[in-house]
Each structure stands twice: as C-alpha cells, then as structure tokens.
Amino acid sequence: MPLSTSKAPDAEPETILQTSGLTVGFGGRTILENLDFEVRRGEILAIVGASGTGKSVLTRAILGLVPHQAGTVSAFGEEIGPSGPSVEMEKRWGVLFQFGALFSALTVAENVAVPMREFLKLPEDLVQDLSRLRIEMVGLKASDGDKMPSELSGGMIKRAALARALALDPDLLFLDEPTSGLDPISAAGFDQLIVDLRNTLGLTVVMVTHDVDTLHSIVDRIAVIAEKRVLVEGDLNTMKTFDHPWVKEYFQGERARAAFG
Amino acid sequence: MTAALDVQTDGNRFVLRPKGSWVIAEAAQLDRAVRSSSAPDQQGGKDLLIDVGSVDALDTSGAFLLARVERQWSDAGRKVEWSGADHARTVLLDRVRAVVGEDAEPFRKRSSPNILSAIGDAVLSTVDYAGYLLRIFGALVLQVGYTIRHPSNLRFTSILHQMDSAGVRAMPIVLLLSLIVGGIIAQQGAFQLQYFGASIFAVDLVGILALRELAMIITAIMVAGRSGSAITAELGSMRMREETDALQAMGLDAMSVLVLPRVISLVIVLPLLTFMAAMASIAGAIFTLWLYAGISPTAFIGRFKDAVTLSTLAAGLLKAPFMAIIIAIIACAEGMLVQGSSESLGRHTTASVVKGIFMVIVVDGLFAIFYAAINF
What we know:
The structure holds 2 protein chains of 2 kinds. Chain A is an alpha/beta fold.
C-alpha cells in the first residue's frame, strides 16, 4: 500500500521482492547462476555491473519476460509461478524500459492512459485528468500529451515512459537506466522526482543504472552483479571498501572520485 | 480497505474528511462520491476545509481528487484550507496541487476527418506520391549510371542474397500455383470446347494464355506480395531504427546500398521465375488434359508446336523486367516513407503490396494494348 505514515523507525524492513537460486541462461550460455537478491519495501536499490553481466536480464527475469531455468522469484510476498507473474502482480509494479518502449501508434497521453483504461473502470474525463497529472508530474508539459513518441527527444521519452509506468500508482517501480541520455540537470531533476515519489508514496524503486551521480545522491543500497551473481550489496561505503578489481575501479576510479568527491 | 468521504458543516466551514484508502483502485467510486457531495455551489457561501488526517493511504490519484475539489472551490471564489497532512503528504499534495492549479487544454481527440478534406488530402498526397516515385526512379537511374562507370560499387553479395530470398525461395509456391492454374484453365477450356468437338484447341488456349499472360501475372503478383512486403518492412524498420541515417552519416548512399541491389536482383529473378511458371502451367495443362480430356502428352506436344511460337513466350518474358522494376521501386519507396511508428510501418507495407499488384495489372493491360497495336 502506498504510504504508511506511522512507520516505526526501527521496524524490520519488509521484503517486497526476492529471488533465490535464480539461474537464467540462453542457448547453453548461463547469464545468471544461483542468484540471491532481495529488495526491501520503500528503498531505492540500484543494480550495477559491467556491460553484459546480466543486469537487464535480472530485471527481465523478475518481470517474467525471460524464463529462468532454476530458482524462485517472489514479489509482494507471493511466489511467481512457472507461468509468469499474475496480472494482479503486474498491476502493482510499473516498468520503465531502457528505450521507453512507448507504443508508437499512440500519443503520449494515450500511452499513459492505456493501463488505466485496461484495468480500471474510470470515467473518461478522470482518465484524461489523471493522465495529465502523470505527464506534468514527470516534468513534461500538458501539451506534450498530444505528441507522438516519434516526435519526442530522448529525455522526453524517458519522462513519458515514467509517466506510463506510474499510471496505476504502483508499489514497485523498475527503472532500466532511467537517466542515461539525459543532460545532467534533467538527470538530477529525474533523480529528485524519484526520491519525492518514494518519500511521498512509499514507492520501492529497483533501478539498473550507470549514473554515478544517481548512485551518490538517491540510492539507498547497491547490488553489484558480477560473476553471474550478486557479488556484493550494501551502501556506498560498503562498495568503497570492497576488495574486487571491478568494484574498486568502479567506485574508486577517476570518474567515481570526480562524482563522489 | 475501503474508502469513504465524510462531509459535514462546521460553523461557516464545509469540512471534507476523506477516510480509508484513497488510492487508484477506489478512484471510480471516490470520483462519484466527491462529485455528488462537494460541488461548491451547493454549500452557499462557506469556506472549505480538507482534513486528510484520517486517510490511511493516499496516492497521486486520491490526491488528485482532493486537489480537484480545492480547484473548484477556489475557482468559485471560496477559501480552501488543508489540515492533517504530515510532511510526506504535504509534499505529495503540493506536487499534485501544482498541476491541478494550472489551466491546460484538454488532450486532442482523434477527430474523424470530414469527407471533403479527406478527398482533398487524398488527391494532394497522390500528386505528391507520383512526384516522389519519379524522384526515386530518377535517383535509381543516376545510380545505375554511376555504377556502370564504377562497377566495383556494385554489391554482388547483396544481390545474390536478395536473389535467393526473392527468387529461389519463391520458386516452390510460384511453381505450385502456376501448375494448378494451368490445370484449371486447361480443364475449363476442354470442357467448354468439347461441345464443338474441339477439345484439342484447349492446347492453343492454355499455351497462349499461359505464356503471354498468366505465368507473368501470377509470378509478378506473388513476388509483389512476398518480396514487395519484405523489402518495405526491411527498409521501413531500418528507417525506424535510424539505420538509414547511419548509412548516410557514414557517407554511404541508401540508393546504392539498399535499393539498387534489390532492384537488380528482382530484374534478374522475375523473368526466370516467369519462365519456370510458364513451364509449370504447361505441365499442369498436359497432366489435366491427359486425365480429363484424353489428350495424350504426345498429341498435346504436337498441337502445342503449331499453336505457340517463340514470340509467344517472348511476349510474356519481355514484360517481366518492367514488372520487377515497378515492384522494387514501389516497395523501396514505401519503405523509405516509414515514419517512427509501428502503425506507419504496417500502413506502408500494406500500401507496398496493394500498389505493387495494382500497378502490375495496369501495366500488363498497357502491354496488351501495345502488343495488339504492333501485331506482336
């Protein structure tokens, strides 16, 4: 449920998403092996890793878009069966795909309205109003709602896709490289929006990102994917002291020092 | 959890007290509750207090419904106050209120165009399209000229690949169709001619018809459907993914890399397929007439030699390269017109096939008139 204002500060954080022993492979090549991973309610978790290590594959496996060979995935306390997540589950999470994946035949406003039209019996003017609310909340202008996806810039596509991901006021938000391709100021605004949404709605956010500024500014916990599993998870300080060549280079290399200070 | 809306009048204030979970799942019901109870004109002259202290859960949709009430009341000139929001809810409500507080045009409705403007648009776009086809054809001619002067620019691998997919792989279906149609024509011919005791002339009928018209038309329609759509979809999705832009930015010309190999391969392949189709329909006719009209293959061949000359076959085959150019140009032109959306890809692929088949038949008609005029 969104927002429980009277959360005890020291309560044991509840697990909203969990994988255990997850193994995913394609055509004899194993991408993820025996991967254990959990996400706690209300946190912003970043998945990082070198290109091609299976960060996107992990989210796609959780979403049921690629089959897994072994292990279990559970979300909202329920195990996801072999036939993939139930529609009830899918209504409770929103997904921002890396390249937006907006329906190219629909306008932005129609894209945002799709989940509301499909799953809720709302009056038409309320659907319009709520679509406009989502569109403006993610930092687009209301008039952008009439544009077709092919008319949008890269940053606008990300925002429009976020608006669609937020259409059903989800509990859990998956973001695949939300700030890639945005200018630094837009990226910071995007980060701020995500923090605000988490703080006000109690959203849980799982993001795949390479943006060191995002990691620095808004992320609660980081999971590093390497060697087909979660190599290490923890906050930024854990990452900085962890002894592994890639993690060291990533969090203590020159780019990281520039961002983390 | 259910959601409810308490409404009371407290002195000179009207108090809205939402309760339960004000979330999107309840939005339809809450929308009705809010509309029926909280219109500002019902509550003569009072101010409004919205007390969110007893809401269990509030999301953007619930916040929107409340903010909308505020907007209606303040538009009606009343004072609106909020109470009971903790910090997080204040942030949420402020974000939502900021949006609701602004005026915005409603989203465009998809209008059904009126018939006059639709006709006008169709005429204009036809004129545009004709010009566009001519430009593509011109660019193609220039490209051919350039390639003749610089033969190393010709992409043999690409041509061979296209010949394989448009020609070799089309053969089974083209041969089968021609065999069947040849058989049907022969059967109909023999059946109608037997009343005059002239079933043997079914050989003339099917021989001339198949070689001059049928083989070419069947092949061209099949290729327009198979390869025309494939070419359009291929070029169209390359445009959608900016691959054609990438080619251009590298200094490569889409005309030479994509269009020319496809045109050349169809020009080579279509006459060959037409010849094969002609042979298949003759085979179908031989077989049918043997079984159905008792005309032995030997008798068929004997009659066939009298009925058909090499020029009959040439009349059919001559048309094939023209049809190939028409199909390839239309398919490439449609592919290059694809815009960003998947809908546009579908529309242009359909247009490619429809226009390709239409033009093939029209041009075949023109050839028939031309041949008649020169006694060919």
